[in-house]
Amino acid sequence: MKYIPILLCLLFIFVFSNGQTQTLEVTKNLTIKQVEQLSKDSNIKKGVKAFSKKKYRKAEKYFLKVTDKNPLGAYYLGDLYDDRKFDGFSEETSIKWFLKASQEGLTFAQYDLGLKYLYSSIRNARQAIYWLEISANNGYTESQSMLGEIYENGKYAKQSYEKAVFWFTKAQNNNNFARVRLKYIYENGLADRPDKKSDSFWGTTAANKKYANHSNQELYELAKQAIKEKDFGKMNFLFHLSASKGNTNAQIYIGYLFETGVNAEISYEKAAQWYLKAAKNGNPIAQDYLGKLYQLGKGVQQSNQQAADWYLKAAKENVMHSMLALADLYETGDGIKKDTCQAISLYKTAAKDGNPHAQYRLGHFYEHGICMGNSPRWLAKSWYLKSSDQGNKNGQTNYQRLYDEEAKIFNQGKLLLSNGNITTAISNITKAADLGHLDAQIYLADIYYKGKIVPQNYYKASVLYDKAAKLGHANSQYMMGYMHQYGQFVTKSKFTANIYYEKAIQQDHQLAVTQYNKLNAVAYKKKSGSWKDAHRQANHARIVSNNCKKYAHFTPSGRYGYNESLGVGSGDFIDCPSN
Predict the structure, then answer these.
(1) What residue ranges define each of the domains in the chain, with the CATH number in brackets?
(2) What is the mean pLDDT of residues 267-295?
């Protein structure tokens, strides 16, 4: 199953501009914000997390819960049934779910559905092109590029270079394959280039006079607009004019055009010259691009030291590629002085910014204690997991390896316990818990809390429950609330108990709801005189408190709170504490 993270998908989703179809209706027009909201669904998040841990059936259960109200559930089910590693693999079922998600307006589902009709055993070229065109017409670059390829090679539709050019042109700004194919088609005379009659005007005295009073930023913005208009003569003229007035972004654009050959010959030497102009003027993107050319030896003499010098400048401005490239050079010592600790510092910054490769490398260094001192193993595992959740294969492999090692020790402990070897069993389970194995922590905490196998020890139980609670385990959060409510070794505290109960309640832990209401009902009993009313009021107060945290806002009149209907229909305005 190919895993497409939700946030990456959102980069390619555009508003549906035309809901008409030939055979099947697209029932919803989804905006980026709507899909972003759908991705926050707790079942979607749990399903994606379960998949990252290869718990396919568990992921299936979560996705199935939301298919009636959330098209992302249908999309992920289509992806799940399309994975041959899944024991429920079925191309027919995969298409069924992709179709449902496609009809509800997900452009990336329409793209995947088109691919299924092209390449699976259930081939239907007409349906494939139909869904790819719906997706492409709503701005999905991959669909546009795929249609260009289909019409260029004529395998699944009648060959048409005119249609191929049409779709490749739409995709070219965000798809290198489309740019390469367009260039090939034009250079081989398979289709005419766009009309360039206006090119003769640009560079003349009249053109220079027309834009003489424009600032470099105004020229830069006009050049970008010319890209959208496909007026490349105007684009080149305005970028050069803006660059001559010191606009570093224009200088980068010109360098990029020479590096990639988009509407110009490929010249790494000229690209390096333009990047150098912008880099010397402090543009971090230009510094990053120039560092890359030095590292690859394109247009300049290869020099990792020069690359590192430019990467360092860009890395100080948090340019992700420079941070990673420089970290790799420091780690390997390839052409520069090796400095693993400096590499780790860069990886830390990149990892905190969400880069999956950096997260994986950070997990590696924590696991092996390189420049980290005596770091707990769970830190390594947590970084591997973050990397894994974003689809990084190394992160997935290493997280699974650590998990399997811990699980083996834990299972050995349980087996020893079943055979009556209590001392060795507890030792094994404790070792697994200390390594950060969540199941072992919960199991051992229950043993110490109940005191049936070993003497009761609330202290050890609380330490283990607290570790599991911090990792998001709902029942452990409930147990910490319970222990604080009744002062079982830990400090008796209604405030702390409520904090833990509320965390568990957010995960639908019903015992936590009951205990929360019981804990907070006493104050209401004094006012109402009825335990039934007291519990009802306590539960209502809990709901209001939770909604205040999520939905409270200031109204134009200065009130702070939320509408009781939460935006669905009309309802009373509930005031919340403004502090």
Answers:
(1) 6-139 (1.25.40.10), 214-345 (1.25.40.10), 437-563 (1.25.40.10)
(2) 95
